Amino acid sequence: MAFSLPALPYAYDALAPAIDEETMRLHHGIHHAGYTNKLNKAIMGTAYEGQKVDTLLKQLDSLPGNIQADVQNFGGGYANHCLFWQIMGPDEGGTPDGVFADVIHDRFDGFDDFKKEFQRLAATLFGAGWTWLVVDPQLELQVYSLPNQDSPLSLGDVPILCVDVWEHAYYKQYGPNRAEYLSNWWDVVRWSEVSRLYECAKRDLSDLAGV
């Protein structure tokens, strides 16, 4: 079954003023759609057609050489954007609460320090790519950036929060001011979903480890 472009869980203008409608239409309807179509083309007629994108990215190193780069780029682009839309929403922002807030505090010496480090990495990433909050196989939170459409899934980590710093994610609205885009982006982070993904990641990784 071919991959399809997922509908946004909110209207194109719902994330304004942090992300405007024109940017959302371009980002979702052109760029994400492009990754979707190119991923389908890359695996069409192969033994990997019909597999989940997470499965493809987790086994990236074992894929045939003639499709490996396309899955890395287009599969990564497809999966990364799916998560990006999922962890944002209107009337969100603020700070996490509950158990996840405690985990953030313990791991990063407070939410403000976590936010500062995440934003620093995103602001200083050279060229195009993403910054990630992931759960690693030891069930620890890690923050890092990856270039282009590379996915933490290919490193064995489970992503739970991401920000896109490709120019198409912000240039229409913010021009070259990536720092302003990142500062405003926090206003649409859906912490309840990030917390849910954290719990899912812990469970799935524990199951894989036989814990």
Strand order, sheet with most strands:
2-1-3
Mean pLDDT, all residues: 95
C-alpha termini separation: 33 Å
CATH hierarchy class name of the largest domain = Alpha Beta
Q: Give Rg in angstroms.
A: 17 Å
Q: How many domain units? A: 2
Q: How much of the residues is beta strand, in percent?
A: 5-15%
The CATH architecture name of the largest domain reads 3-Layer(bab) Sandwich
How many helices does DSSP assign? 8
Oligomer: single chain
Class based on secondary structure composition and strand pairing = mainly alpha
Output the helix-strand order: HHHHHEEEHHH
Uncertain residue ranges: none
Can you give the helix content as a percent range?
Answer: 40-55%
Strand tally is: 3
What is the CATH H-level superfamily of the largest domain? Iron/manganese superoxide dismutase, C-terminal domain
| CATH third-level topology of the largest domain | minor pseudopilin epsh fold
Quick one: overall form? globular
Q: How many strands, what sense, and barrel or not for the largest sheet?
A: 3 strands, antiparallel
Structure overview:
By secondary structure, the chain is mainly alpha-helical. It has 2 domains: 21-86, Fe,Mn superoxide dismutase (SOD) domain (Helix Hairpins), CATH 1.10.287; 98-209, Iron/manganese superoxide dismutase, C-terminal domain (minor pseudopilin epsh fold, 3-Layer(bab) Sandwich). 51% of the residues lie in helices and 10% in strands. The protein contains 8 helices and 3 strands. The chain has helices at residues 21-43, 53-58, 65-86, 98-108, 111-124, 171-174, 178-185, 191-209; strands at 129-135, 141-147, 158-164. Strands 2-1-3 form a 3-stranded antiparallel β-sheet, sandwiched between helices. Helix 1 (21-43) packs antiparallel against helix 3. The longest helix has 23 residues, at 21-43. The protein is globular and about 45 Å long. The protein starts with 20 loop residues before the first helix and ends with a helix. The model has no long low-confidence stretch (mean pLDDT 95).
